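FAQ: What does a multi-protein file look like?

Like this. Sequence, then tokens, then the next protein.
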Amino acid sequence: AQRAEIEKAQRVEKIKAEEQLKKDYKIINDYLIKNNITAQKAPGGTYVEIIKPGNGAKVDTTVVVKTNYTGKTLEGVTFDSNTDPTFSHVTPLNVNMTSDYSLGGGVIEGWADGLSMLSEGTVAKFYIPSGLAYGTQGNGNKIPPNTNLVFDIEVLKVMSKAEAKAEIEKENADYKRYMDSRSGRAHV
């Protein structure tokens, strides 16, 4: 009986998610039309507007992507950025597109979907339906449940697994040297 209840609840959630996705697509399509924006739909449903095409390596599931970004709601409220000092983290974000978790964590589904259409050097905007972002849970005070998101994205570099691993190892070594220097330990 408990299993049947769980399956029933999952079916209900799936139906709600499909209905929300239809609403999201209409809201985003209306926004794109109203603002005369041309965007392509990525395979998973993220809308991608190419601002400046890149000419470097293509993003796929074998790479780590170094990015700059600013995230906003469709209404224009900025909730995060790695280029705006007011958010206190102005370093590029490495996005692990692989299944190797030693290379870092992933991102929301809409990001991975949109990045799959880009290459090194691309500047783009992602219009992400809520179900490919934070869904019915939302994320903190700035992203309520069922919120469609817009991200300004710049692909700074597309790195192979080996390049990403070397970068991580260098950053870890640099951090260790810094911490050793702060604690007064000499570096041999």
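And here is the next protein:
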Amino acid sequence: LGPTMRRYAASFGDQTSTEVQIVLRGDEDRRYSKTQEIVMFRSIQELMSNAAFHNSEQRHQLQISIELILDDDNMQVTVKDNGKGFTYEEEETGSGGFGLKLMRERVEMLNGTLSVHTAPTQGCEITLSIPTESVMFE
């Protein structure tokens, strides 16, 4: 997951003219279950794409930072951007978009968590955490 994320972040930055910073902590080459790696990678892809899409008018000023922590107990990623942010109410069905709802469902199927911190004009910070022992299917 680590080397794949480094390559993806570099490619994404080049293709979108967005500044992308990535910090990897832990064993970059550690392997997890296919399910865990796919859910984490696809979630990061979607969060980066959403940031670029919803901030397209300021893409050249957009900065995305990714912190990926890989250890024996947990996979965790925090994706932050300095974009326009949005109003998010977790309790409201569909608030924050259908994509976030589906992402939360996928992460929760693996006994993980997803947290969203955002507000209009304040950018966005989303953290996903998946315990590594949580695999329910392969």
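Q: Is there any per-entry metadata?
A: Some entries carry free-text notes. For the entry above: The first strand starts at residue 19 and ends at 26.
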